[in-house]
Structures are given as structure tokens and as C-alpha cells.
Amino acid sequence: MSSIAMSITRAEGFTAPGPGDFDLPPIGPDKTFEFLGQTMYLGVTKPMIQMVLVGVLVFVFFWAAARKRAMVPGRLQYIGEQGYGFVRNSMGRDIIGSKDFLPYVPYLFALFFFILINNLLASIPFFQFPTFSRAGLVYTLAAISWLVYLGAGMKKHGVVGFLKHTCVPQGVSPAMYPLLIPLEFMSNILVRPVTLALRLFCNMFAGHMLLILFALGGEYLIVEMSAAYAPVGILAWLLFIVISFLEILIQFLQAYVFVLLNAMYIQGSLADEH
Amino acid sequence: MQTLIIRASEGELNPLIPHPIEIVLSLVVFAILFFAVKKFVVPNFEATFAERTSAIEGGLAAAETKQAEADAKLAELEQQLSEARHEAARIREEAREQGAAIIAELRAQGQAESDRIVAHGKAQIEAERQQAVTSLRAEVGNLATGLAGRIVGESLDDEARQSRVVERFLAELESGSGVN
Q: Which among A63, A70, A139 has the least Cβ separation from residue B23?
């Protein structure tokens, strides 16, 4: 969003949504501080509250579902078991392998529902803000993923063994090593956490931006512009509804992909063959 | 909103630069969630799954035992049934033989009885015939005598003839005395 485009849109009276729409002011006094050349709010903001709320909600729900341990589950226990079994079996057991998936199930399980519910809050009335459109919240999860899959590999193969296992491709003549080893190191060790973080963050950020654009743009076309533009505004609102459903799908998919890739990285670290 | 527009226009806001408080908060919240889930949720689910699996396996084993028992019982019952059929056939055969024997015996008895009755009847008839002959003979004698008497008596009824018979008799007697 260049300042020229910004000024053009403002000249016409419409303020296009930008990154500023994600920098919500805190509840209470909005003091600011400087960090990496950015002015930031100091205080409790909406995404922070959402994140804590989701943490509590996910734990309380699954704790309540799991505690009865009935042979024939009731409705709550059934839903809990389905959710847990989905992560455990389709992402844990099927990807990591039935031999050593179990220690990673709590991590994958907590991660999946933490991301999923936080994403879904973007489509739930009164919240309507994707928690993970805040980069800081996502970087942490990507960093944890990075540590988990590196830790898993190093625990199994040792530090040197793991680096060799990850960076030295097999079945390739040693002449190619100077070219391939840096490449493998880049893609397997350096880039993975970055792509993990950016994928989740950008999807949430862009999806929400798109929704704001269609909602506010449609409103502007209907309310502020001449009557000839009103049908376009209504079309924008219809698209807004369609895209909202698409967003719900994306919110689920991003949670799924994030955890699936975690499981695949762990599997790659634990595998005996490269 | 005013400050936001100003900031956006200044080109300052970079959404990729993380908010330090958010980094820390995310770490803390996820760590707490992870440890809570690991300690209080996952063990319960795993225990439930394990219990259910063992319950199902136990149920299967019990069902297999039951099935084997039922099979054994069925075989036993079938054997009993065939034995019972065999026994029934034997009894039926025996009964048939006995019945035939009884019929034959009864027939012989009946024959003997009828023979006896016939013989008895014949003897009785013979006796009665003898009696009848005897009594007839007596009766015939009487009748003959009576008839003869009647025949003689009627000739004596005529007084003139009687007196003539008597006179002739008397005359014969007189001449007879002289002669004789």
C-alpha cells in the first residue's frame, strides 16, 4: 500500500483498509512504546484477550469431555474423542508412524485446537478478528514447531547425526555435496519455520483484509456514492458473504496445514532414511 | 481511527514486525495449554481408548468361548437327537413285532374257543337228540297204545255189537267148556 495510492483513495473520500486495521488500540489508556522502529501500543488488546480465552476454552472443553472416561461415551465425550482422535490418528499416527507418535500427540493436539479456534474467532460475531493476523503470536508457534522437530531429530540421531541426516542427501555422488548441503540446510532448517509462520499469518491477515474491504467498500458504494453505484455495492456485499464462507474453510485448512506440516517435519526428523 | 490513518499514510506500520508482548503472551498461553492438556486431557483420552480396546478384545474372547460352548452343546444335542430317533425306531419295530405276536396268539385263542363251542354244541345237540328219541319212543308207544285202545274201544261202544260180542263170547265159553 503505497502512500500515493492511499492519498488517491482518500482524495475520493474512501479510506481503504490497511495494516492499521490490525493494530487495535488497547483497552484502557493507549500508551505507546518504540520497538524495531515501530510505535506500538502498550496494554491489553483484543487478540491477546482472544488468545487467552481460547486457551482456557480449549482446555476446559476437552478436560470436561475426557474426565468421565465412559466406555459408551455421552455427547460431550463423543465430540471430544472425535476431535482428539482426528489429530491423534490422522496427523499423529498416520504421519509420524505408530511406533513413536504418542509422545507428540499432546503437542499436536493442543496446537491444532489452539490455532483452529483462534482462527474461527475471525468468523464468530463479536470477536470477528483473526488472532493470528498478529505476526508476533504466530512467530512463537513457528519457533516452537522449529524447536520441537529439531529436538526430536537431535534426541534420536544426536546433534551431528541429525544435521548429517537432514542436510546430506543420500544416493547422490559426493561431488554434488558442496551444492546440495547448503541447499538442504536452507530448506530444511532455516526456511521451514519462516514458511510456517508466514503461511498462517498471511492467510489470516489477507483474509480479514479482504473481508473488511468488501464490507466497507460495499457500504461506501451504497451510502456515499450516487445511486448508480448501489448495485455494485450490493454485489460487493454478496461477495462478502461468499468470501466469509471461504474464509471459514481457510481458517480450518490453515490450522490443519500448520499441524500437518509439524507432524511431517517430526516424522522427517525421526525417520531412519532421508 | 484518526491516528491509524495518519500512521498508515506515514508508511510506518509493518505488520511483519512482531509485538514483543504478543510473543511472550503467545508462548506463555500455549505452554500452559500444552502442559494442561498433556497432564489432564490426553491421559484420560488414552486411558479411555485403551480400556475400550481391551473391553472389545475381552468381549470378542468371551464371544468366542460362548460360540465354542454353543457349538459343543449343539453337537451333543444332535447326537442325543439321533440316538433318540434310533431308539424310537427300535421301539416301533419291537412294538410291531409284539403286535403281530399278540394278534397271532389271539387268533389261535379265538380258533380254539370257537372249536370248543362248536364241539360243545354238537355234543349237546346229540344229547338232546337222544333224549328226544327216547321220549319219542315212549310217546309213540303211548300214542300207539292209546290209538289201539281207541280203535278197540270204539268197537266196544256199540251196545248191540257188545252184547253180541259178549253173548258170542259167552257162547263160545259154554261150547268151549263142552268141547274142551
A: A139
Q: Which of B16, B29, B40 sits opposite A63 (nearest CB)?
A: B40
Residue A168 confidence (pLDDT) above 90: no
| pLDDT at A12 (0 to 100) | 61
A36 reaches B (C-beta below 8 A): yes
CB contact under 8 A, A23 and B17: no
Predicted confidence band at A6 (pLDDT cuts at 50, 70, 90)? very low
Cα radius of gyration rounded to whole Å, chain A: 23
Please give the radius of gyration of chain B, using alpha carbons only, rounded to the nearest integer.
71
The pLDDT assigned to A5 comes to 46
Please tell me the distance from the alpha carbon of residue A142 to that of residue A148, in angstroms, as a whole number.
Answer: 10
Looking at residue B15, what DSSP letter applies?
Answer: T
Among A56-65, A72-81, A118-127, B7-16, the range scoring the smallest mean pLDDT is B7-16
Q: Kindly compute the dihedral angle of the four CA atoms of residues B100, B106, B107, B109, in this order, to the nearest 10 degrees.
A: 150
Q: Name residues whose C-beta falls within 8 Å of residue A83's C-beta, 6 or more positions apart in sequence.
A: A62, A113
CA distance readout (Å), A216 to A17, A126, A222, B9, B100: 8, 17, 10, 19, 113
Provide ipTM, 2 decimals. Answer: 0.85
Stretches where chain B sits below pLDDT 50 are 1-10, 178-180
CA atoms of A155 and A187, how far apart (whole Å) = 21
Tell whether the torsion through CA atoms of B135, B140, B141 and B147 is positive or negative. positive
pTM score: 0.68
How deeply is B18 buried, as exposed, middle or buried, from its count of CB atoms within 10 A (0-12, 13-18, 19+)? Answer: buried
Domain boundaries of chain A, sorted by first residue: 3-270
Nearest neighbour of B34 by CB, restricted to A22, A84, A107: A107
Q: Is A171 left (phi over 0), alpha (psi -120 to 50) or beta?
A: left
Residues of A in contact with B48 (CB under 8 A): 66, 69-71, 73, 77, 81
